Amino acid sequence: MNSQDHLIDWADLLARRANDAPNVVAYRFLLKGEPPARELTYAQLNQQACALASHLRSLYPPSTHIMLLFEPGIDFCLAFWACLLAGMVAVPCYPPADPRLRERFMALARDAGAKAVLTNKAIKQLITLARWLVPALRKLNWIAIDEVSAHQKLTQLTPAAPGTLALLQYTSGSTGTPRGVMLSHMNLWQNMLCLEGARLSGGMRPGTEEHLLSWLPLYHDMGLMTGVLFPIYLGSSSTLFSPLHFLQQPARWLRAISVERATISAAPNFAYEFCLRRIRDEQLVGLDLSCWDGTLNGAELIQPGTIRRFIDRFAPFGLRPTVFYPVYGLAESTVFVTGSIRGAEPVIEAFSRQGLLSHRVAMPQNAEDNQELVSIGTPFADTELRIVDPETCRLCSPDQIGEIWIRGGSIGLGYWQQPQASTELFAAEIMDALPADQGPWLRSGDLGFGYQGRYFIAGRIKDLIILQGQNYAPQGFEHCAESAHPAIRTGCVAAFGSGEPESLVILAEIKPKHHEPVAQIQAAIRQSIAETFALPVPQIMLLPKAALPKTTSGKLRRRACKDLFDAGKLKAWKP
Fold this sequence. Notes:
The protein is α/β, with parallel strands linked by helices. It starts with 9 loop residues before the first helix and ends in a 9-residue tail after the last helix.
């Protein structure tokens, strides 16, 4: 089943889970980020997913594109499994609750070539008016899964050929327009093997003893794989709740881990920082985090200070110093690419700041030259990495920073309906390559390097800011600005270059109910960046809450931020 030459039988996997543990809870959804909850056992999941899959097969041939349109919850999990079992191509998306999301939804509907939408009665009724207003929506068949009988006549669900399309996973759009990554059944299975290798890196432990807990969006690659697919692969339980409930009260995340006795969770770096800033001491009474074995930290640049402060803050409540599991991944590789050793403390190394700016790996000359980076570990299963010069496409020397190129069974088939971009990024070849280095390779667009057998991220090529002849990653400026003043919102700072010659621009959102003078906050940002980088900041613009464009997974859209700033379309914050 893990071979490229064998059929991938998701129906067999789910049936075996239901037969081995029919009454074990497969999915538990906390309705408000805490009990009460809705549950689905393995027996119920198998019965309902097979019934819905049979219904889909009675309507459409295999490989039909089906959009999944749900609020966070168990319905999404059920619909996703039904598409896998029926051989349909799942296209996860999010209910278009505001105008920006409506534009994204319509763009996906047009681009994906979907024939139908799986949703529920409540959303179907709400969107009825829009269906008559928008011609593209009228052409879609809207199927409410709660109107499909669980006693639907079952059809024979045949295993999927490994190379057939299973999922159209749209990228977050943090560096441009979202693209649909074509992921095959083999890609999904191989990524499960990668995650399993990472899980077992700290020792053998039955998958049934794990308990995964996630508030990440299920339509996003990290939330989908770690919260929906991987738990069933393991035969474990998954507890889920809405990202909105996390953002309202981040303490709900830690309380849920404590109450549900979860062993694994996952989040981007901003979430851990958000907990540090927003959780009050009185919310921690009775908290017991001793069950928490591993928490994936990825999807954005990992900050060493965040890891240290998170461990220090919650160690009195049983949090282990080995809990953090730094990872690296991207939708084009299903999700998971590299990870650390489970059960070991994160590896944080100091490098020369000037060396990094020159794309060279060197040790710091003094305290001012010190730049700490968190290792993203190593690849697992059949995944391989190379560090390649992005301009010459030749392998970098060990002390050189280059683009991360990736090869393995998790790499997607390309971008949907974008053959040129697919060839450029998914079928790259290393110049003058030895047989072991011949492609095709995936070009990640991320800068990185290897050091003492581990990999490190140094930024994204498209985000680099060129100042005084040096290349700077924006995250360093953003982290400096964010920590410069308490009025600045966590995860709501954008740094980019503008003008000719390029100069640094900082955009920062201000928390509501703060009334400090604009000049005071700007001065704090300038001082913080000057002390760290010895650079001036000619332009600092303070903005009201929610002014910066973000992706549906919460990542900054730096290019869109720059476009709005250059066009003069941003409205400044006033105390």
